[in-house]
Request: fold
Amino acid sequence: MRGQTSSATLKQREPCTHRSPFASPNASSPGSAAGSPWPTAPLGCTRSLTARRGETVGFVGFVPRELDWGNEIELGWLVRRAFWGRGYATEAARALRPLVPGRVISMIRVDNEASAKVACKLAMSLEREVDYYGFRTNVWVSLAAD
Reply:
């Protein structure tokens, strides 16, 4: 079945009520950031991807990043090797992307062709290459949720 897309379900691993460390202290509740350019919910949250058989496929979620050029929100994914090539990462990331309006990045190692393909399928653009903790890493950007 390799290469065939199977439907996965997103299950919440932890409550998505975490506040972004970039949010204004005056923000009244998760999801609002009065005076802050950073959205608060659903940052720091992960969702587990579960196959029909109930196995954990991987995880997807948003993570705030403090980078050399400024604060960013990263959409990241991790899929277990047994489930590679089935479209799980694309399906899950596409489902979560609309939750954060505006600019979102994905930090993908230069040699990770599979994740670069996911970024392309999400209509992300390659912005730059950086050294990230000793690894050549591409910064992929999505400017607006589709």
